[in-house]
């Protein structure tokens, strides 16, 4: 996922005139959630690819999973 493009799109949404509330707010919230979700997925991928779960008995994996679910829930996916 290209987070730079998402950030640029967020900036464009915020700058649009006239404001189209509540759509603008929803779009910004969605972009923020997508970036957070992508960052969490990348962190999960690194954690499992490097097999760090072997060092901490999946402790960080459990935390990352909860973070993933917390971010995903408002998106209703």
Automatic annotation (TrEMBL):
InterPro entries: DUF3829. It holds the Pfam family DUF3829. Keywords: Lipoprotein. It comes from the Bacteria. This is Putative lipoprotein. It comes from Escherichia coli. The lineage of its organism: Bacteria, Pseudomonadati, Pseudomonadota, Gammaproteobacteria, Enterobacterales.
């Amino acid at each position: 996922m290209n987070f730079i493009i998402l950030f640029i799109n967020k900036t464009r949404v915020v700058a649009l005139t006239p404001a189209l509330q509540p759509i603008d707010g929803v779009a910004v919230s969605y972009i923020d959630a997508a970036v957070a979700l992508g960052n969490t997925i990348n962190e999960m991928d690194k954690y499992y690819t490097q097999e760090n779960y072997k060092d901490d008995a999946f402790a960080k994996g459990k935390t990352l999973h909860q973070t993933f679910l917390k971010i995903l829930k408002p998106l209703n996916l």
